[in-house]
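Researcher: Here's the sequence for the chain we discussed earlier.
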Amino acid sequence: MNRTRLALLAFAPLALVACGGDDPITIEGQWARTSPSMASMGAAYMDITSSEGDQLVGVSVPASIAARAEIHEMVPADMEMDDSMDMGASEDGMDHSMDESMDDGEMAMDMGAMVMQQIMALDLPAGETVNLEPGGYHVMLIDLAEPLAEGDTFNLALDFAEAEDITIEVVVRTEAP
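Model: Thanks. This is the structure I predict for it:
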């Protein structure tokens, strides 16, 4: 084997490592549901994959879209807390506590058999795709500036505990893509 070929083979693994491979966070399928004309809230959905493991710790949208955005989850109503309970951080690492006065922006909405509540962080296990979808985890848009209409787009900033923050464009749709 000649020296040039041997040198190329010796440095090939280093070149592959230097290229880095995939981004640490991948976002796919982002969309938001249209909202009725009198609605004050909306929701955005997407699939998030973290190659190294991380947490989604915050979300935000421009004021022209909504006053604020929060990470929410749907849980069975039997897990709803009464005034004497404070679940705090659970075994899954997420904060499930709710403020009884709801003055700090946390809220719970009774959806029959399910309750929606804010979470402070969404775990993103390494290599697993976490689905934000209707009936599960989602981004809640609170105090919409105007209804979300089919075909509209808006920017949604995602803040991660470890990875660089990412801003994505969200398309408003009547139904899931």
